[in-house]
């Protein structure tokens, strides 16, 4: 088993890697490949912009982490363990950042971070669902959406104590806003993959196979997408393979493309190229690259993250802090629990 410090390092890398992918892909999120190449050259986008701004996927991933950590610290200090409710409350706090211009006096946690009060083209499904008085569950969905907005925020839940808990929590937290089975089951699959490679030190192909088998109980679409991603990855890295997997606007496609790029370029020294592969296609470039970055960060740790890219990344210190605390909670290391106990 990995040492606690290894788990912490991988948790930090998971969140930072996902944020780098998100920032790399955000400028071309809605662009066709021909248009990307016309603007950036035949190789496409090669690096994040000088100011690598967080996308909505990273914003929500941070609130996922904060919500989970509120539940963990509350339970660890004699309170009730209610991770889904705590994460739902965190998503409501994120909604405040999309409705107001700056933190209110006395704001705590992520609500006190001015940079988060920025609209980065969030998905309408999440925005609409979070404004409703009652959120969804897998058994009581509030809509039929299988969009990618559940999967692209679920990686932090991979640092739950067990593999099955990581899967279940991610499914339940995605179902708060995305009621289609493929929308929440694909989130569970990503969280499970992150847990298996970061916490249990499974090899990535084996982790993907295990996730495909687990998600098959709920959703054949996500399971089939993962199986196809594995098959195509064995044939090498190609934008044509990505096109066979889809564009990434729905959960299973975003998951499959992100997993495919991680499998096709799995070596530590290929991290940047894997993110470039995940970005340069006609589809949801920021989400697919965020998934790739989260997986490879969780697999390899912070040593693979390009330092010049990190120097440009908005709120890198906050992302690192949340990642550290997630890894510490999972591995039994101490961290500042007071930071999360007082959250509403």
TrEMBL record:
<dbReference type="InterPro" id="IPR050792">
    <property type="entry name" value="ADP-ribosylglycohydrolase"/>
</dbReference>
<feature type="binding site">
    <location>
        <position position="286"/>
    </location>
    <ligand>
        <name>Mg(2+)</name>
    </ligand>
</feature>
<dbReference type="GO" id="GO:0046872">
    <property type="term" value="F:metal ion binding"/>
</dbReference>
<dbReference type="GO" id="GO:0016787">
    <property type="term" value="F:hydrolase activity"/>
</dbReference>
<dbReference type="InterPro" id="IPR036705">
    <property type="entry name" value="Ribosyl_crysJ1_sf"/>
</dbReference>
<keyword id="KW-0479">Metal-binding</keyword>
<keyword id="KW-0460">Magnesium</keyword>
<comment type="similarity">
    <text>Belongs to the ADP-ribosylglycohydrolase family.</text>
</comment>
<keyword id="KW-0378">Hydrolase</keyword>
<dbReference type="InterPro" id="IPR005502">
    <property type="entry name" value="Ribosyl_crysJ1"/>
</dbReference>
<feature type="binding site">
    <location>
        <position position="56"/>
    </location>
    <ligand>
        <name>Mg(2+)</name>
    </ligand>
</feature>
<feature type="binding site">
    <location>
        <position position="287"/>
    </location>
    <ligand>
        <name>Mg(2+)</name>
    </ligand>
</feature>
<protein>
    <submittedName>
        <fullName>ADP-ribosylglycohydrolase</fullName>
    </submittedName>
</protein>
<feature type="region of interest" description="Disordered">
    <location>
        <begin position="130"/>
        <end position="152"/>
    </location>
</feature>
<dbReference type="Pfam" id="PF03747">
    <property type="entry name" value="ADP_ribosyl_GH"/>
</dbReference>
């Amino acid at each position: 088993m990995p040492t606690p410090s290894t788990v912490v390092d991988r948790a930090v890398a998971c969140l930072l890697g996902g944020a780098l992918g998100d920032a790399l892909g955000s400028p071309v999120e809605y662009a066709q490949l021909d248009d990307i190449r016309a603007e950036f050259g035949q190789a496409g986008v090669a690096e994040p912009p000088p100011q690598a701004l967080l996308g909505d996927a990273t914003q929500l991933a941070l609130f996922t982490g904060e919500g989970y950590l509120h539940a963990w610290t509350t339970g660890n200090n004699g309170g009730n363990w209610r991770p889904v409710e705590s994460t739902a409350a965190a998503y409501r706090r994120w909604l405040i950042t999309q409705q107001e211009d700056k933190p209110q006096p006395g704001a705590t946690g992520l609500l006190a971070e001015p940079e988060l009060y920025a609209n980065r083209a969030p998905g309408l499904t999440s925005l609409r669902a979070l404004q409703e008085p009652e959120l969804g569950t897998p058994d009581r969905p509030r809509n039929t959406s299988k969009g990618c907005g559940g999967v692209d925020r679920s990686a932090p839940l991979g640092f739950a104590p067990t593999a099955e808990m990581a899967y279940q929590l991610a499914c339940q937290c995605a179902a708060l806003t995305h009621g289609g089975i493929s929308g929440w089951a694909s989130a569970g699959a990503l969280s499970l993959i992150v847990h298996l490679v970061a916490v249990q030190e499974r090899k990535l192909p084996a982790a993907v196979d295990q996730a495909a088998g687990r998600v098959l109980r709920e959703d054949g679409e996500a399971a089939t997408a993962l199986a196809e991603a594995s098959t195509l990855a064995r044939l090498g890295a190609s934008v044509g393979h990505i096109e066979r997997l889809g564009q990434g606007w729905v959960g299973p496609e975003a998951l499959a493309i992100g997993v495919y790029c991680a499998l096709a370029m799995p070596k530590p020294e290929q991290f940047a190229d894997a993110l470039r592969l995940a970005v340069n296609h006609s589809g949801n470039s920021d989400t697919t690259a965020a998934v790739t970055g989260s997986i490879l960060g969780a697999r390899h740790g912070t040593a693979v993250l390009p330092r010049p890219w990190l120097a440009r990344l908005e709120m890198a210190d906050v992302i690192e802090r949340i990642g550290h605390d997630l890894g510490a909670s999972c591995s039994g290391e101490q961290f500042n629990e007071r930071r999360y106990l007082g959250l509403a």
